[in-house]
Amino acid sequence: MKAPITVSVTGAAGQIGYALLTRIASGSMFGPDQPVNLRLIEIEPAMGALEGTVMELKDCAFPLLNEIVPTCDLAEGFSGTDWALLVGSVPRKAGMERNDLLGINGKIFTGQGQAIAANAGSGVRTLVVGNPCNTNCLIAMSNAAGIPKEQFFAMTRLDENRAKSQLAAKAGVHSSDVTNLCIWGNHSATQYPDFTNAKIKGQLVTDVITDREWLEGEFIATVQQRGAAIIKARGASSAASAANGVVDTVRSLVTPTPDGDWTSVAVCSDGSYGIPEGLTASMPIRTDGSTWEVVQGVELDEFSRAKIEASVAELVSERAAVADLIPA
Ligand code: NAX
Predict the structure, then answer these.
(1) How many angstroms separate the CA atoms of 85 and 62, rounded?
(2) pLDDT in tens, 147-171
(3) How far is the first Cα of the chain from the last one, in angstroms, to the nearest whole number?
(4) For the residues of 60-105, what is the DSSP string, one character each?
């Protein structure tokens, strides 16, 4: 039996946490022969609800679940962890401006970044899900002294999956037939699902779906607004699909990327594609299962470049809004 991997999850009593923890404990994230320890982090008022989630996890009697530690102490929560999944954050309430949310949640991620650096091993990898996830990731990374920037990620995989599903439905194929789909920029309504480089069964999407008006209009809008559409229909924000996005993101980072393909995740920009260095922006990534690289040479037409620039401009303004939370 392999040694267990330790996974810390913040916001563990929330709805994404509820859908995510069973997926991790059942082996969906790290495979059917990899035991896991779970460190479940919540704020004090949610510890009662977390206890309920812990009882359910125990009641599943998962063969791979080695240990569960519920805690509201960050040091305990991140102690010796291999993966920090930062899901918990404060939801946007009526009357709250985007910058208010950035400020409130930003403070959560300074503390968590520091606690990760102080308590996890230097190899810890962090995936930020709590919104605004790109900028929260930037804050956590900037406050985690000593942890390499390459080990911080923010989630845009749910958006990639949504985009693949929309293209597959339009073309009458299965979503697994869609490859090379990159979400560029911010996980927000400005994100750009790049259909110009995406492929269906190896053929360019634009050769399979010739309705360019649909691709440039309805397709992009549907992906950008999918979160809001789910809230409208369900009365609650996406949870199972978001949890699935977390599982897919981590799996894609720990297993080699299939030949010729790439995956979307927001990473610290190295300046590729003119995205300012240091911003946490989503782009096409390939990995051998341990180290990753930004895929170079993806051709971007004028339409794509304009869309990416708009999303990157939003990231620049978010970074400016939280400048006081980013140590020089
Ligand atoms: P919930 O409100 O159901 O759960 C959030 C949980 O976080 C709560 O249990 C709360 O007590 C906890 N929490 C708050 N502050 C905390 C802190 N400082 N430390 C630890 N825990 C804390 O939200 P849920 O639906 O689970 O969504 C969680 C986050 O994911 C939200 O920010 C949401 O916007 C974001 N999402 C991000 C997505 C992405 O693709 N990046 C998609 C889904 C989702 O919208």
Answers:
(1) 20
(2) 999 999 999 999 999 999 999 999 9
(3) 44
(4) HT-TTEEEEEEES-HHHHHTT-SEEEE---PPP-TT--HHHHHHHH
Q: What is the pLDDT of residues 275-288, one digit of tens each?
A: 999 999 999 999 99
Q: Full-prediction pTM beyond 0.85?
A: yes
Q: In testing the pocket of ligand 1, which one of 78, 129, 158, 160 has its CB within 8 Å of the most ligand atoms?
A: 129
Q: What is the CA(96)–ligand 1 centre distance, in A?
A: 16
Return all residues near 110 (Cβ < 8 A) that are at least 6 apart.
Answer: 139, 140, 143, 325
- Residues flanking ligand 1, CB < 6 Å: 10-11, 13-17, 41-43, 46, 87-91, 108, 129-131, 133, 155, 158, 187, 227, 237-239, 242, 245
Of 96, 92, 50, the closest CA to residue 73 belongs to 50
Q: What is the pLDDT of residues 198-219, one digit of tens each?
A: 999 999 999 999 999 999 999 9
* Residue 96 pLDDT greater than 80, yes or no: no
The residue whose CA has the least distance to atom 43 of ligand 1 is 242
Asked if 174 is an active-site residue, the reply is: no
- In which region does residue 319 sit, left (phi positive, over 0), alpha (psi from -120 to 50) or beta (all else)? alpha
Q: Is 3 helix (H, G, I), strand (E, B) or coil?
A: coil
